[in-house]
């Protein structure tokens, strides 16, 4: 039995449903941020993140800051590039535009390589772009939450290392870390940034990053100081290193409760092989996508290999808008999200399937949601 | 009976002890950040902040972002000044240096007006500085957590309005909002920034600000865009306005659990007149300071009017260092903090007395801590 009061299942692309033990850790009694019990907890949490990102290179550096996932963009833009530098942003939806806007606010020139809605930039286009201009960073949204488009990281990294080896690869993994396969070392990634409230299964409030030794070298050799303060690794690097070495340290007060919750969730996640976790998210996603297809509905990403495994975007049938169907789902205890991509927001809905709703065999959230979607569509007059 | 497990009383200058109901709110079940229940909760929270800061001017603008208190400095530095501008930082300890460093990282010239340790810049010195140069902002640390020095805001504001009326007044209220008297409208303040984990009584993870209409006008008439992204009010202003109007809105995912905890704590705080809250913090502080004096010990701020009401800094007797006394206190279930001000860190300890440890009549944290301090000093051979 869950210790949580009965409530609708949150099946949006984050925040997700949380495990009881994680929510209990959120209510941890007060502790000093520099006392041994919390320092040990934070240190272990940072070490566990290395396992989650599958990196054994000791030069890799994890960061956990209080903030939204968005703060990860600021950390990339203020620490790894300098004003006037050029970056290439691969665009698969809303979050490409926003990441580019973040770079611009720091005085960095962001060139976007855009694909039609539901598609992603192809390797030959990316190769052409990388050959035309020198870019300090290439960014890719692993899963764009506005479209459900999944990007392919391994072949992208191979291309970048072949064509433009000095270009750092920064992955926006907000909607992918914890449910999509990511091999930080094997795939030679330089930054993977994420947030707590999606497949990591912890309430919102933490910006989480893994940064490669190569990227840290770039940071350490920058000419100007980072043009931000709270997001500056000059301030945070010694703190993260000290916490992981179990030594007290202070720059700005971290959130012991959120870190305890992250510790609890990572302990649960790492108690099983990550391969199993990736596999069950994939299987569940296939089941959902099959059900959507059987209902006669289409997803925004057309090609199966471009479809995310932790969320599904669903085009609504002819002229139907999200407010016509979402309240019916809510009455059945299921919360989906409306559209987010500006050009098409009124035409589709989003179904998030990450974390305990997928991995906990005691939960029936997913089957219940599929059934609720069928019934709700029928209620509003949709016939397949 | 508390629902929290037995644990040492956290009596450092933040994080503080938390109320059971606040910790329970931290474990709130998942909700979408754009759904009506959370939107209403966040909207009410923003409105309650107006009462906490004692502002009825509708032009005043509250902000609540995921982050540490430090993020409030970034918000001031990136939104209210532009690179090349001059600001005057009144220095009463560690946090003056840090706020100045924050401005410099954004390309803003920060001039510090420093006082000897334990003292604060005097009005005639401030008047002289304001007449020598034109400053866009003057900042003051209401209570510097490294020294326990309390600054006087009312007369400072009168001076600034008389001598340099275009200079905005920004108050670092991290260690003062919720325990020291602050009258945002009456005292004509322009920014008061704070964090959740001190006298507001909510776990760390929220940066909380109140900004005047005059400061928002300055923001709206700036020439360049803010040179940050996550801290930019261009991104957050419409979100805060929408939440307070109970309309869903999205820029970056807020933390529903932390906002629920803030809602719970503000509801408790505002259920009684704020005057009572200020008074009980002052009375408790007087009691502690009297006990310290009776023990023959001295505080860092020499003048009683310069001594904070939510914390007390205590010079250790001849040659004693914090590690000699803090473990004895810990054995008695009391956690004080060591020194923070670099020049004197090894010579003093800090006793935080904010929030439920002070206001909840069922708690005996303060009396217990005073007794534990007396006994611990005797144990290590101190004789008055």
From TrEMBL, chains A, B:
<dbReference type="GO" id="GO:0008453">
    <property type="term" value="F:alanine-glyoxylate transaminase activity"/>
</dbReference>
<dbReference type="GO" id="GO:0005777">
    <property type="term" value="C:peroxisome"/>
</dbReference>
<feature type="binding site">
    <location>
        <position position="350"/>
    </location>
    <ligand>
        <name>substrate</name>
    </ligand>
</feature>
<keyword id="KW-0032">Aminotransferase</keyword>
<dbReference type="GO" id="GO:0004760">
    <property type="term" value="F:L-serine-pyruvate transaminase activity"/>
</dbReference>
<comment type="similarity">
    <text>Belongs to the class-V pyridoxal-phosphate-dependent aminotransferase family.</text>
</comment>
<dbReference type="InterPro" id="IPR024169">
    <property type="entry name" value="SP_NH2Trfase/AEP_transaminase"/>
</dbReference>
<feature type="domain" description="Aminotransferase class V">
    <location>
        <begin position="63"/>
        <end position="341"/>
    </location>
</feature>
<keyword id="KW-0808">Transferase</keyword>
<protein>
    <recommendedName>
        <fullName>alanine--glyoxylate transaminase</fullName>
        <ecNumber>2.6.1.44</ecNumber>
    </recommendedName>
</protein>
<dbReference type="InterPro" id="IPR000192">
    <property type="entry name" value="Aminotrans_V_dom"/>
</dbReference>
<keyword id="KW-0663">Pyridoxal phosphate</keyword>
<feature type="modified residue" description="N6-(pyridoxal phosphate)lysine">
    <location>
        <position position="198"/>
    </location>
</feature>
<dbReference type="Pfam" id="PF00266">
    <property type="entry name" value="Aminotran_5"/>
</dbReference>
<dbReference type="InterPro" id="IPR015422">
    <property type="entry name" value="PyrdxlP-dep_Trfase_small"/>
</dbReference>
<dbReference type="InterPro" id="IPR020578">
    <property type="entry name" value="Aminotrans_V_PyrdxlP_BS"/>
</dbReference>
<dbReference type="InterPro" id="IPR015421">
    <property type="entry name" value="PyrdxlP-dep_Trfase_major"/>
</dbReference>
<dbReference type="GO" id="GO:0019265">
    <property type="term" value="P:glycine biosynthetic process, by transamination of glyoxylate"/>
</dbReference>
<dbReference type="InterPro" id="IPR015424">
    <property type="entry name" value="PyrdxlP-dep_Trfase"/>
</dbReference>
């Amino acid at each position: 039995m869950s210790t949580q009061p009965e409530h609708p299942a949150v099946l949006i692309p984050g925040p997700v449903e949380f495990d009881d033990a994680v929510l209990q850790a959120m209510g941890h009694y007060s502790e000093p941020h520099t006392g041994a019990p919390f320092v040990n907890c934070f240190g272990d949490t940072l070490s566990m993140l290395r396992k989650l990102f599958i990196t054994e290179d000791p030069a890799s550096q994890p960061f956990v800051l209080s903030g939204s996932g968005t703060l990860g963009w600021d950390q990339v833009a203020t620490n790894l590039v300098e004003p006037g530098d050029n970056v290439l942003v691969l665009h698969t939806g809303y979050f490409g535009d926003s990441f580019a806007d973040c770079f611009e606010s720091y005085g960095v020139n962001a060139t976007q390589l855009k694909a039609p809605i539901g598609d992603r930039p192809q390797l030959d286009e990316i190769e052409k772009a990388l050959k035309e201009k020198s870019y300090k960073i290439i960014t890719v949204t692993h899963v764009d939450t506005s479209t459900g488009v999944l990007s392919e990281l391994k072949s992208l990294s191979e291309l970048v290392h072949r064509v433009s080896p000095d270009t750092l690869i920064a992955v926006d993994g907000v909607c992918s870390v914890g449910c999509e396969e990511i091999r930080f070392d094997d795939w030679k990634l330089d930054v993977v940034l994420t947030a707590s409230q999606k497949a990591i299964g912890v309430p919102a409030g933490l910006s989480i990053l893994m940064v490669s030794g190569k990227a840290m070298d770039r940071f350490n050799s920058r000419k100007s100081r980072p043009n931000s303060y709270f997001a500056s690794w000059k301030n945070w690097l010694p703190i993260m290193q000290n916490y992981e070495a179990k030594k007290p340290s202070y720059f700005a007060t971290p959130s012991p409760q959120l870190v305890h919750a992250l510790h609890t969730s990572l302990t649960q996640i790492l108690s099983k092989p990550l391969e199993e976790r990736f596999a069950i998210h994939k299987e569940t996603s296939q089941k959902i996508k099959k059900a959507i297809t059987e209902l006669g509905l289409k997803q925004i990403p057309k090609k199966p290999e471009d479809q995310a495994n932790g969320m599904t975007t669903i085009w609504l049938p002819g002229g139907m808008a999200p407010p016509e169907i979402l309240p019916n789902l809510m009455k059945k205890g299921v919360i989906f999200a409306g559209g987010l991509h500006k050009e098409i927001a009124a035409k589709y809905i989003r179904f998030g399937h990450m974390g305990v709703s997928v991995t906990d065999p005691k939960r029936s959230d997913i089957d219940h949601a599929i059934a609720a979607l069928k019934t709700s569509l029928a209620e509003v007059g949709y016939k397949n």
